[in-house]
Fold this protein.
Amino acid sequence: MPNSGQTGSARLGRSHAHAAKLHDKQSERDHRDLRIDKVGVRGLRFPIQVRDKAHAVQNTVATIGMFTSCM
């Protein structure tokens, strides 16, 4: 599609004045009193380079998890 200088919503016939507002749930206080022992991510794939015994560079992909305790 050629760029006509219009934004996506203008191309679709919608004006910005009528755009729906999204409520920011993350900024609200959580009153559930849930205990969280740790937070993080797992299964993160990250390209790395390692050296073998002959000191040659080998490219591979590391799968890692990163966590922190919240105590």
About this structure: The beta strands are 38-51, 57-69.
